[in-house]
Amino acid sequence: MPTDPRERNGFSLVEVLVVVAIATMVVLVVGNFGNNIAGLNTLVSLELGSKSDVSQTLQVMTEEIQSAETSAAGTYPIDSASTSSFAFYSDINKNGMAEYVRYFYASSTIYKEEIDATGTPAVYPTSSAIVYDVIDNVLIPSSTPLFSYYGASYTGTQAPLAEPVGLSAIRLVGVTFEVQANQSSTMQAAPPQYFSQLIDMRNLDSN
Questions:
Q1: Would 10 be classed as within a structural domain?
Q2: d(CA 32, CA 27)
Q3: Do the beta carbons of residue 197 and residue 62 sit within 8 Å?
Q4: 3 falls within a domain
């Protein structure tokens, strides 16, 4: 006697395949969403970490330039100034004697060079120079150099001092650059972070 289909137990093969297909799609969608969220979190963390590190370095640079003073050898507080390099003397180690300090740009990196004064009379031997990598992945905007310089009459609208810059005319130092945060090849590229600082060389105000 034929069996009533309504009394059938279990599922057909087609029904099982449909359920499996739906479950697979749900897993893929949820997994892709999770990956996107993780990638976004990583990107945001990289950007925030990079911005914080660079801001701290820029703050150190600002304090050192603001405190520029006559060298231990009696020479002028500024040693050299160009669009990609700035060298000066400042007591960055707080030992009562100014160190030679130079910030410069090369190969997408901002470096810091330090030389301690030695001997009597004091000299700054280049053989004892220490160079640090302070900011990586640096981009210099085409319209603005890394370093620009302004005189005592600057009120916020004048153009920088023309190259070559007379060292005795410098009263303010502009620092401008962009930084591209580190990221993996699987992540969407983030826009570069922009940094700009105008530093008053306070110890030169009366010179």
A1: no
A2: 8
A3: yes
A4: no
Please provide the DSSP assignment of 72-97 as one string: TTS--SEEEE-SSEEEEEE-TT-SSS
Low-confidence ranges of the chain (pLDDT < 50): 34, 36-49, 207
Q: Could you tell me if 199 and 62 are in contact, meaning their C-beta atoms sit under 8 angstroms apart? A: yes
State residue 49 phi and psi, 5-degree precision: -65, -45
Cis omega (within 30 of 0) for bond into 192: no
Q: What is the pLDDT of residue 205?
A: 66
Q: Is residue 18 part of a domain?
A: no
- What residues make up the domain containing 195? 36-156+165-204
Entry pTM? 0.74
pLDDT at 185: 53
> What's the domain count of the chain?
1
Contact of 54 with 179, CB cutoff 8 Å: yes
Q: Classify residue 70: in a domain, yes or no.
A: yes
**Is 190 within 8 Å of 41 (Cβ atoms)?**
no
Q: Tell me how far CA of residue 128 lies from CA of 124, 168, 174, 191, in angstroms.
A: 8, 27, 29, 39
Placement of tokens 């983030």 in the chain:
190
Beta carbons within 10 angstroms of residue 65's beta carbon: 24
Point out which residues pair with 112 in neighbouring strands: 103, 132
Closest CA to 84 of 25, 184, 163, 18: 163
